[in-house]
Design brief:
Elements (H helix, E strand, L loop, with lengths): L1 H23 L12 E3 L1 H4 L6 E16 L4 E13 L4 H7 L4 E3 H8 L7 E3 L7 E9 L4 E13 L11 E10 L7 E10 L13 E14 L7 E13 L1 H25 L6 H23 L12 H28 L3 H30 L1
Parallel strand pairs: 1-10, 2-9
Antiparallel strand pairs: 2-3, 3-7, 4-6, 5-8, 6-7, 8-11, 10-11
Helix pairs in contact: 1-5, 5-6, 5-7, 6-7, 7-8
């Protein structure tokens, strides 16, 4: 009977994670979501009386997503298009060719009205890879820039490695305030149609992306406000990567710890040393795994799902270690009946505590 109970407990711990992992592995294809534009009420006030600059944005790469440091890098292409009808003759005089780059471009834009922008909240000044200015046949101007920059991430993701992260790329007008100029987001795309390399680099998947149009306020001036376009992408961590790096190793360590208690009875003196050493080795393994994954876990002021699971695994192994030592000492002192009763209690207690703890954690997080 006792042997059957142990097999039931062992089977329970093997089957429950399989159902959980199978359900969590389902994904939805959002490779081409509808791009929506959210305009604030404050931004709408400036739509009718300011020069409109059309904004076209293409994200070439999102890479080096580091949720431990709270940063990511982005490579993007930005096109600003506008008209200077009042200076069209001067502009046509300056443009001997349709397109200029480098020093010739900078000389031209110094002489004409043109929009300037900054990337909001960037951790390092953006690196411009190349830029051009182009005069269209209809007299409109196009200022193009391809750049890379490093931006912060809000890693408030209690459900990690589940849940989603929002990455933000905000461009804000620099020299012309909203009374003079507003940015109108026209086009937002992740990658070019002919692009072979993935836009989102690493173990992440795109869930959705959208644009917002706002007004930015600066401490540098109290009587001016500036137009802002925000390009936002919502991503999630790939479950298969989480399964391989976290759940399989940690779940395996926890199962081995429980199996040691269930199938290495202290009735046999030879099991005492092996069981205690085994639990101690598993405890050190959990510490090593936590250290190895430190760079892939968000640094938050609260405990996220992964932190709680590590705490449960550590607590279970510590309980199994101390119970093994205690029950072994009782057996060695000759109190075999008492030791057998205590061992049976822990055979039930530890697995039930683990199941209850995991259930409480899932309830509190999700």
């Amino acid at each position: 009977m006792e042997c059957n109970v142990r097999f039931v407990l062992a089977a329970l711990f093997c089957v429950i994670p399989v159902f959980g992992w199978a359900g969590s592995g389902k994904t939805t294809d959002f490779s081409k979501p509808n791009v929506k534009v959210i305009e604030s009420e404050e931004a709408k006030k400036y739509d009718g009386r300011s020069k409109h600059v059309k904004v076209f944005m293409v994200i070439d790469r999102i890479f080096n997503i580091d949720i431990s440091a709270g940063t990511y890098e982005v490579e993007a292409e930005l096109l600003l298009k506008w008209r200077n009808d009042e200076d069209i003759d001067k502009i046509r005089t300056e443009f001997k060719e349709h397109t200029y780059a480098g020093e010739k471009m900078h000389k031209i834009i110094k002489k004409i009205w043109h929009p300037e922008f900054i990337v909001k909240s960037e951790l390092h000044r953006r690196e411009t890879l190349f830029s051009t200015i182009h005069l269209n046949k209809d007299g409109s101007l196009e200022l193009f820039e391809k750049f890379e920059t490093i931006l912060p991430i809000n890693t408030d993701i209690r459900e990690y490695p589940f849940g989603t992260l929002q990455l933000n790329l905000d461009i804000v007008a620099f020299t012309h305030d909203a009374h003079e100029m507003v940015f109108d987001p026209i086009h937002f795309e992740l990658g070019h149609p002919e692009q072979d390399t993935p836009v989102l680099v690493g173990n992440w998947s795109l869930v959705d992306f959208y644009i917002d149009k706002k007004i930015a306020h600066r401490l540098s001036t109290t009587d001016q406000v500036f137009t802002q376009n925000g390009f936002h992408f919502i991503i999630k961590h790939d479950f298969n990567d989480t399964l391989q790096k976290i759940f399989f190793p940690l779940g395996g360590v926890l199962l081995i710890s429980l199996f040691l208690n269930l199938f290495s009875s202290m009735r046999h003196a030879a099991n005492y040393e092996a069981r205690v050493q085994g639990q101690l080795t598993l405890l050190l393994t959990v510490f090593a795994l936590k250290f190895t994954l430190a760079g892939e876990i968000p640094q938050t002021h609260y405990m996220n799902l992964i932190d709680m699971i590590f705490m449960i695994a550590t607590g279970a192994i510590v309980l199994n270690l101390f119970s093994s030592i205690g029950v072994g000492e009782i057996f060695l002192n000759g109190k075999k009946e008492t030791a057998a009763r205590v061992e049976k209690v822990f055979d039930w207690l530890c697995p039930m505590l683990v199941i209850l703890s995991i259930a409480l954690v899932c309830y509190s997080v999700f």
